[in-house]
Amino acid sequence: MQVQVIENVLKLNDDVARLNRAALHAAGIFTIDLIGGPGCGKTTLVEKTIAALRDTLNIAVIVGDLATARDAERIAAVCPQVVQINTGRGCHLEAHQVRQGMDRLKLDGLDLLIIENVGNLVCPVGFDLGQDAKVGMFATTEGPDKPAKYPHLVDVADVLLLNKIDLLAHVPFDLPQFYADIKHLKPNAQIIECAAYTNNLTPWLAWLQARITAAKK
Amino acid sequence: MQVQVIENVLKLNDDVARLNRAALHAAGIFTIDLIGGPGCGKTTLVEKTIAALRDTLNIAVIVGDLATARDAERIAAVCPQVVQINTGRGCHLEAHQVRQGMDRLKLDGLDLLIIENVGNLVCPVGFDLGQDAKVGMFATTEGPDKPAKYPHLVDVADVLLLNKIDLLAHVPFDLPQFYADIKHLKPNAQIIECAAYTNNLTPWLAWLQARITAAKK
Question: Does B167 touch chain A (CB under 8 A)?
Fold first, then answer.
């Protein structure tokens, strides 16, 4: 019975995700679902990405946390359209929550929707939100073994970020092991090093811009 | 129907947790459930704690991860009794998994059982495993807002650790805000700063030793 219930929940989620995707594509919006552990730097990445691109792109953000509106308040400083979703005890965003967020945004004229998921390397992985790309984020401060220990994120992510590369000298982090573990799980994985806090984001911004441009064609 | 199923799962878990607790107490064992995000330093804390205490205490470890036996392999270097539980897609340990782990340990003569939960600040919080104390772990590298954003862990934890205090100079971390947020949620919270990697663990070891001694009385 439990499996049946879970299957129904996932099917309902996927149905809503399909509606989200259709609405977002109809509006010409490219959407990413940003997934990473607590404190890997997701919100800083969102802030700096918007600051870098806002002169050329219209961007909105839906951000999920169990509690507080702190991320939305931070992002609002650089982005006029932000919706905070509080999940209570929920460990990930679901498609219907994104749908509610979309209802509160002016989609017309948007180029990019960033969904910042709840800080968690497990639960957000299996839920389609209607995104075009899942972005998996790790950080040097977490140690090099996270891809091997959270392989499902590596599996579903369209691109993997290794953030806080600027702290490499201060933390124990075996960079070759990090790359080898990912390549073992997914030989064709795309991995981008970055440092959101210190604005080392050029390859990430290039990836994102290329995907947005390709989606508009 | 879904709520009913979840209630049944939680009730079954709590029943098994009670059996675990009874068996552990009968054997004179003090048990902690260590909960923290991915890469906050749980395994390093376990390694260093055992290295510091193994001359005076008999210690065993049950460690949960979605995949790999890496944590168990690391801990085995300092601890003869380690069981790795692989949860697959499971985002936390459950009491029956701890029970299976206990079946593979020689409980007789043990003083301390450390259960290192899956790296996650949400899902492990609501599950009783049969522990005597839940230890909530944060790290300076995660930023200061994690207690406010994961309030349920603060609520249930018997003690909160702030790890990687040695990296304070290298990361943006507002220490007064971290303390204020916790005190706002839980005025009597006990908070211990530590740095597992550089062996700055004295107050943590004192807390643990005091709890083990009190439990034996």
Answer: yes
Total count of domains within chain B: 1
Query: How many angstroms separate the CA of residue A25 from the nearest CA in chain B?
Result: 31
Q: Please check whether residue B130 is in contact with residue B161, taking contact to mean a CB–CB distance below 8 angstroms.
A: no
Q: Name A105's Cβ contacts closer than 8 Å, sequence gap at least 6.
A: A60, A62, A81, A83, A113
The answer to whether A4 faces chain B, any CB pair under 8 Å, is: no
Q: Are strands B133-139 and B159-163 parallel, antiparallel or unpaired?
A: parallel
Domain that holds residue A178: 2-216
CA A108/CA A212 separation, integer angstroms: 16
Do the Cβ atoms of A141 and B60 come closer than 8 Å?
A: no
Does residue A166 sit at the B interface (CB-CB below 8 Å)?
Answer: no
Which is more confident, A8 or B211? B211
> Which CATH number belongs to the domain containing residue A209 in this structure?
3.40.50.300
Are A2 and B9 within 8 A, CB to CB?
yes
- Closest residue of chain B to A149, computed from CA coordinates: B67
Judging contacts by C-beta atoms under 8 Å, the chain B residues touching residue A120 are 91, 120-123
Mean pLDDT for B190-201 is 98
Provide the phi-psi class of A199: left if phi over 0, else alpha when psi is between -120 and 50, else beta.
Answer: left
Q: What is the mean pLDDT of chain B?
A: 96
A148 vs A155: CA distance, rounded Å: 11
Nearest to B53 by CA among B155, B199, B183, B214: B199
Contact at 8 Å (CB) between B186 and B153?
no
- Residue A166 CB contacts under 8 Å (≥ 6 apart), including other chains: A195, A197, A198, A200
Pick from A88, A65, A32, A69: which is nearest to A204 by CA? A32
Look at strands A59-65 and A81-86 and give their pairing: parallel
Q: Which amino acid appears at position A180 of this protein?
A: A
Q: Do A70 and B126 touch (CB under 8 A)?
A: no
Residue B138 φ then ψ, to 5°: -115, 170
Cα–Cα distance for residue pair A126/B13, rounded to 1 Å:
24
Whole-number average pLDDT of chain A: 96
